[in-house]
């Protein structure tokens, strides 16, 4: 679980450059991005990549 601002500095397993290097997460611009709370969708509000399912909680 992390903010969109933080996610934009994590590598996406799906996106690559023309030179085959990983690209950063696109955050809410990507259809796989999920918000923790749909009422809170700002750059510092929490969310996660839905590609691997929901986040594991303690
Ligand atoms: S939300 Fe997931 S699939 Fe979408 S850009 Fe970010 S890491 Fe990649």
A few lines on this structure:
7% of the residues lie in helices and 31% in strands. It has 58 residues and is mainly beta. Residues 12, 14-15, 25-26, 30, 32-33, 49, 51 line the site of iron/sulfur cluster (SF4).
Give the SSE map.
Blueprint: E1 2-3, H1 4-7, E2 11-16, E3 22-24, E4 33-35, E5 46-49
Antiparallel strand pairs: 1-5, 2-3, 4-5
Overall 3D form:
globular
Task: Give the total of domains.
Answer: 1
- Determine Rg (CA atoms, Å): 12 Å
Task: Indicate the low-confidence ranges by residue numbers.
Answer: none
Secondary structure category: mainly beta
End-to-end Cα distance, whole Å, is 12 Å
The order of strands across the largest sheet is: 1-5-4
Characterization of the model:
By secondary structure, the chain is mostly beta strands. It has one domain. 7% of the residues lie in helices and 31% in strands. Strands 1-5-4 form a 3-stranded antiparallel sheet. The chain has a two-stranded antiparallel ribbon with strand order 2-3. β2 and β3 form a beta hairpin. The longest helix is centred in the N-terminal third of the chain and has 4 residues. It is globular and about 40 Å long. The two termini are 12 Å apart. The structure holds iron/sulfur cluster. The site of iron/sulfur cluster has 10 residues, from β2.
């Amino acid at each position: 679980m992390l903010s969109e601002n933080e996610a934009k500095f994590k590598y996406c397993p799906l996106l690559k450059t023309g030179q085959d290097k990983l690209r950063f997460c696109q955050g809410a611009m990507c259809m796989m991005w999920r918000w923790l709370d749909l009422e809170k969708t700002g750059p510092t509000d929490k969310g996660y990549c839905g590609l691997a399912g929901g986040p594991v909680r303690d």
